Structure formats: C-alpha cells, structure tokens
Hints:
Helix content is 45%, strand content 19%. The protein has 75 residues and is an alpha/beta fold.
Amino acid sequence: HSMRDVNKISSIPIRRQRRDHAVIHVVEDDRFTASYTMGILNKTYEAVLSKSGEDAIQDYIDHAPDIVFLDIHLP
C-alpha cells in the first residue's frame, strides 16, 4: 500500500533530515552474506535488510535509508 502512498514517498527526504542517525539498507538474498553483513552493520548503525527486489522497494519507502547496498545479481 505504501508504494501507492504519494505523501509517504514524497516525505522520504524530510524523514531523512529529521533523523539523528544513519539508516543503511541492505538488499541481499543470500542468507550467509545477509547475516554476515547485518551482523557487522548492526553494531554501529540502524540497518534494514530486504531479501527481494519487491521487499527492497517497500522497505526503501518505509525506512527512507541514507544509503543502499544492493546485490546486483538479485533475481
């Protein structure tokens, strides 16, 4: 539903500016790589993991990350 929410999408830059911490978005479908990466990042940052392209779009809208690490071989 939030993919159709124009207000939520347009508020992404505002939500980023209002935060006092960085949010990192990892898009990875390999369980080992995802677990390893999130284990490292969660020690210092708020990290969000998506395991599919569709989930990645939804999570991007929901969490307004500051940076995205994307698995380029994602189906």
